[in-house]
Write a structure and sequence with these properties.
The complex is a heterodimer. Helix content of chain A is 28%, strand content 33%. The two termini of chain A are 34 Å apart. Chain B is an alpha/beta fold. Chain B is globular, with a radius of gyration of 19 Å. The chains are: A alpha/beta, B alpha/beta. Bound molecules: adenosine-5'-triphosphate (ATP) and magnesium ion.
Chain lengths: 470, 274
Amino acid sequence: MATDITQAAPSHIGEINKYDFRTVTEGVFKAEKGISAKIVAQISEMKGEPGWMRDFRLKSFEIFESKPMPKWGGALDLNFQDIYYYLKPADHQGKTWDDVPAEIKETFEKLGIPEAERKFLAGVKAQFESEVVYGSLQEDLGKQGVLFTDTDTAVKEHPDLLREYFGKIIPPHDNKFAALNSAVWSGGSFIYVPKGVKIEFPLQAYFRINAENMGQFERTLIIVDEGASVHYVEGCTAPMYTTESLHSAVVEVVCKKGSRCRYTTIQNWANNIYNLVTKRAMAYQDATMEWVDGNLGSRLTMKYPSVYMMEPGARGEILSIAFSGAGQHQDAGAKLVHCAPNTTGQIISKSISKNGGRSSYRGLVRVEKGATNTKCNVVCDALILDPQSRSDTYPYIEVAEQDVSIGHEASVSRIGEEQMFYLTSRGLTEAEASTMIVNGFIEPLVKELPMEYAVEMNRLIQLQMEGSVG
Amino acid sequence: MIDTLTIRELHVSVEDKPILRGVNLDMKRGETHALMGPNGSGKSTLGLAIMGHPNYEVTSGTIELNGEDLVEMSPDERARAGVFLAFQRPIAIPGVKLADFLRHATTNVRRPDRKEGEELIPMREFRKELKGKMQQLQMDVEFARRYVNDGFSGGEMKRAEILQLAMLQPKFAILDETDSGLDADAVRLASESIAEIGREKMGLLIITHHDKLLVHNPPEFTHVMLGGRLVETGGIELANELHSEGYERIRKAYPDADAENQAMLGKIEAQPVG
Ligand SMILES: Nc1ncnc2c1ncn2[C@@H]1O[C@H](COP(=O)(O)OP(=O)(O)OP(=O)(O)O)[C@@H](O)[C@H]1O
Ligand SMILES: [Mg+2]
């Protein structure tokens, strides 16, 4: 372990400081591989964090060590000691375009992503050049009292607000990977939307991302105050490329009385990545929380966004889609917990498996004692494109009340011969026809996406269908 | 040179069961042919075999478009070569908008050597044409935004098939009971539209149990199928006879084919629904 302060930060980073970006002044921090209490403390120190956060990290590390690996989901062939847990942005910048694998570059090209953006997405460049857009946006939001920064900054600038919820929605002992994230987290977004403020346009992580946001252990906290509303969009449809094999994020959302939050994620991971994410929201009286979650690529994804409906009238909606290709396993699903009367929930899950890919839906609907007159509807549809591929459904329903209505429909279909014949008989090639059927299959999700994401999503599916991604 | 569709001694099996047993048919572009015959005689099978449905295996015989063998072609190649089948039972494709599908199909059929991924016909141009055709068929333009055959009423499905026929402008079109499921007004509209779109421009093979479609599209030839064979061919008077008298005379005249027809029906009915 050594701290090298001889390398100066690239000059463009200083410039964006005025927009509240995290700046790099410390130079390069070369972390050791692996994890220990020492490394966790070091991460905290490098970030110049207050004592409470360091203690939180260390406590989380203990929990991480004491927790067994999850017994469900997919095969986790992970060596925790063979991973870098903290890379300074400067480390990312040290990487060059030549280090990026050819197939990733090719995909960027096919997606038509501009040069500057490609480098950013590949982790070569720390900053996507959109400061101007971000600047005016930030100003606009600032006037309304909205806070939108990275989480590291929030620890320093908004500690009271952050501490009220940080680690409260998803405590470190929730699961092994939540504990890991709590110990080593870096980056992610912090958003606070004040009472009654309705943000009309989607807030995109895109515009304010710096190298740390792209990190493997980002941590996001969104607080939507009474009557407020926000739509947050994260990720992008280009393949996310990191040299590390583990991505484990934690996302916490609080929806206060009468508020509304939609959180949209579209992620397309490189084939070597374990993507293990914990996402949870608490929705209070008459509040609505919606997760829209698209997962492509990765070696194994385990992700089950959840909504806890805490007070009467709360509503939780989860729309998820998974696409698994060769060597990929998507274990994705959703969790709805009805803790109060008159709450309603909906889960729509769609999965596509191709070239030996495997998709599983794992879902839980729980109705707690006292949560009377609740309604919940679950629909999960799987589409399997060839005999080598596989799909499973693991729906769990736990109901402690009488007066509830829970619907569950599941379907598994193969691309129908009759559908293929119908489309090809009108002049579409087989490849075009199956892409069209797949795009039709996910249309209910795609139409919920902001326009540019919808377009990219369709293009991405097309590439996946051609088998040229991942 | 006038386009021709020529079928010789065509034998077709489904799951190794012979359905068509030696069909011969000669069509020229511009002609209208009626294909009649009792239920289960093999009319739809002929249409599906011409279009290349993978479950309908041509065990012997030929289907040629202008002397070119269709049997070796995939369904999309046949479509690009200029063959169209309006389905007796169109298939639903959830999530796929009729307009998107049709823009793709129209591009491929008009530019047969288009490679996958190449540009589609420009949106504006396509929309304008589609809108025109829909108005002609008295269809609401909004209808094009619905998902292909998904939740369509019987009549809507048939109308959508005619719309596709109008857009794709094939050399030869097989219309498999395109008049069934339509109310009286819709049948008249459909008949008139088909006459306007296809008559004398395409070679039409009209499969029907009613005479409405044929009133506006009087056939030059009428073929009667029984037991997987075209047992008789005549002019419009044959179609008229079958409409008023039924198949009694035909069945008596071709007892072997009739027996095969009965046997096919019986065999199928004895099977559990698959
Ligand atoms: N996919 C199939 N699987 C099994 N049997 C089939 C299949 N397609 C056709 N057949 C059988 O072949 C025979 C001819 O059927 P076809 O649909 O061609 O008759 P049709 O003349 O079109 O009848 P209709 O007037 O009732 O539409 C029938 O006995 C039918 O059951
Ligand atoms: Mg039929």
